[in-house]
Amino acid sequence: MAVRVMNGSAFFRCCAASTPLATFRCCLHQRNSVQFHSSSRFSTSRRLHYRLIYFGYGEFTIRKHSTQSLVDMVVEELESLRKRGRVRASNKLELKSSEELLENKSGKPALQKGLLLEFRKDSDRVLLAVAQKPDGKKNWMVYDQNGVMTSIKPQQITFIVPGIKDFDHTEIANFVQKAQDNLDPSLLEFAWIELLEKNKSTTVEELAEMIFGSSDPLESYSAHLLLSRDDLYFTALETKGPYSVYGPRPSVQVEELTQRKCAKEAAERELEEFVDLLKSARGMPLHQKPPKSAWMSEEKNQKKIECLQAYAIDDCRSEDEKRTAGMILKAMGLAKTASAAVNLLIDIGYFPVHVNLDLLKLNIRTDYSEEILTAAERILSESPDVDEVDRKDLTHLKVYAIDVDEADELDDAMSATRLQDGRIKVWIHVADPTRLVRPGSMIDKEAMKRGTSVFLPTATYPMFPEKLAMEAMSLKQGEHCKAVTVSVVLHPDGARMK
């Protein structure tokens, strides 16, 4: 038995073997009683008056001070009703095997004019229709719920509503609406508990009798809808044409399916939230779009952005990545193509307008994390020169660097002087990053991952963060720069001396 409490009233639902579910209602009414106390003052105390109504089995009234007493009495009464219901059910329903149940169903008359049936229009749509006339040897012309006359094959029929012989097709929409109003998935759960306890299978009409108290056409179709949409509690044991026998799933399987369903619903909500973020960023002006790092702040968003990026450069490493990117593009109303993914990432500000996809395909990093940039700033402001005492002042030399005028990162240069005996001394100066970057530090590990600076006609991507590479680690003109210098003496003809 299940109990629901709603706004001061309790709804008691008993199992199907006794009476239809959702037939008990307990209403609480309050009355005031006046009592005289020794202080000669009147005071009002409240005494609860309980009224239990069991629809279809009469009405009785109980006066109690305790709500617990009421519950105990209701439970006793329900148990009594269940016992009487089991006797009625055993007399009314004869337990049969699924084969016998199917034989009874499939033995019903074939299609005829006026039958109300459900058929599969396509992979996504199922419609109700009224049979009109044969169309050839096997097919039938039907009027569907949209008022369209169409020809269907017998294998398209998924259900024939029992108890109807001459249905008016103009009433289909009203019939469907009434059936929708009947749908309460919790009723299916209660029926599953009852049938699982008895290890019993059921047909649509039996289930309708169990949960609605009637196997009339509307209730039977409502039960069919519950079963056809259910992916937790019941499974079709056998099917013959439009008739099926259903059995309750084991408890362990239901628990596992419930967990999967919850996980799927959570993933769908997460995807919906991410799509909302994309739409919001897409509609922002360029200067207000979130930075690339903002998309990486949460793991769930980072994974989806990475799936989109992999899809954009045709580098998905798994079907799951490809499927995730496809769902995002579909939710955004875009085609499932690499170019659509690229344009979306540009529109939200994640990719620059003139993005170089080859860099992405080659996995060449073009930016740095906030953590690395902060570490670089700290190095510039705090790092002393531990080799200061060993450095030699070579500022008297003329230093030449060979590079383009626009070069910002000058990491090597040279000087040359002629000695008194005619020989030439050449000095080779290389910027000294080791005075700033210690082996094994965060900056050092990042540089090791990159391996080299990348120079392109359109941009330069240094191995170290820009402020380090372009300033502290560069041999800038007109400034004192730290360098590692080696020299070599050459003969006047340019040959190296031993």
From TrEMBL:
One of its GO terms (cellular component) is P-body. SMART domains: RNB. Keywords: Hydrolase. It is an enzyme of class 3 (hydrolase). Residues 391-496 form the RNB domain. It comes from the Eukaryota. GO terms for molecular function: exoribonuclease II activity; RNA binding. The keyword Protein biosynthesis does not apply. Its EC number is 3.1.13.1. One of its GO terms (biological process) is mRNA catabolic process. The keyword Manganese does not apply. This is Exoribonuclease II.
